[in-house]
Amino acid sequence: MINGANTEGLLRELAPRALGAVVRRYGNFAEAEDAVQEALIAAATTWPTDGNPDNPLAWLIRVASRRLANQYRRDDARRRREDLAASWSLAAPDPASGHDDTMILMFMCCHPSLTPASAIPLTLRAVGGLTTREIATAFLVPEATMAQRISRAKATVKASDEPFVLPSPDQRAERLRSVLHVLYLLFNEGYASSSGPDLARSDLSSEAIRLARAVHAALPDDAEVTGLVALMLLTDARRPARTAADGELVPLAEQDRTLWDRRLIAEGVALITEALQRGQVGEYQVQAAIAAVHDKAARYDDTDWSDILSLYDLLERMTGNPMVTLNRAVAAAMAHGPDAGLELLDGLGDRLGDHHRLHSVRAHLLELAGDTQSAIVEFQAAAARTTNLREQHYLTTKAARLATE
Question: Over pLDDT 70: what percentage of the chain?
Answer without folding.
Answer: 89
